[in-house]
Amino acid sequence: MSLTCHELAALIEQMQPDxxxxxxxxxxxxxxxSFGDIALLSDEASLAEAWQDIGIxxxxxxxxxxxxxxxxxxxxxxxxxxxxxxxxxxxxxxIKVQSQILQLYVGNPPLPV
Length: 113
Prior knowledge:
elongated; 0% strand; single chain; mainly alpha
């Protein structure tokens, strides 16, 4: 049995009737990108487990992004011509964090580190 995005959205709406359409659409995207066969999400228990997994991964990426944003704001106030090795590593970590968030939304496997 296949599951369409519309059907997946309806299942999510049943579980979270107060969720705004943007959140339902975002969750549909994250779930379809994370699971090869979304038909496996057709029962409420599987969907709830997948939702929790996606939520944890998204929260972790969001927390990393918030911390990295603060570091980048500090870095932006300094003179780039005098960047230390540590400041260069801040930039590299910021790129990696952005990549992780992007991978959640586009569904490609993460790049090797």
